[in-house]
Sequence to fold (254 residues):
Amino acid sequence: MSTASTPQAAAADVTDRPRLPDGDDERFTGFGVLGLTFRSGDCLALRVMTGTSIGPAYRAVWHRAPAGDWHMFVTTDPEHSCPRYFSAAATYERVPEIDLSWTDPARLQVRIVGVLDWNLLLRATPATRAMSALGGALPDAARRSDPFLGAMGPMARPMLRTGRMRMVGAAPNRQRFQVVPTRIWRVSASTARIGGRDLGPIGPLDRQIGLGDFWMPQRGLFYVGDARFSAFDPAVHAAVAAPADGLAGDARQR
Fold:
């Protein structure tokens, strides 16, 4: 596991030395924001997959609008990125770049030119340090165990005050997933504008939201870790849904 002490250093480690878990399923490693809710009803998430078993490294931003619609911005084709698993519940578009810059070891800026301007301040807490110690020490058998990972979510809930969390379950396109965060930090402050609209202050929603069995934490979390999804089976899993006409323009107005 990484022993980097700051979010920037941990992200750099998994970028410079991506280490995929063993297996014959669809595997990912990287970092990002599990989810961050705003009092406006918006939610943002970030996925920076620095290594995958099904294609090139990529970046993705997920946005949930107050009306409840989900949209994903991805830097590679949808068959090899997040829409492969989530397009049954979210629209998407490919963008040329999602820019990341660290202004100090705990401050991250995320930009999509003409679309998104997102700033994050991250910090460690006693609870995130405890969960990081647990996640980083898990043996391989535990990382692949549905019962063990299924117990981690309820254990993390009171410690991190995130509301419901699931480390194992089904994505909207019906693939099974396992998520193993190995390092975690709290998002202590954030500002964001999307399509020119200020999302306002961060905060928990009146009703927790999710995509399939993947619940967005009610308090933002930055993570480094791994994920697994079932190998695609056309007899069982939904294929990537086609994007709607005019989607790019619509998404910029969300």
Summary: The longest helix spans residues 146-160.
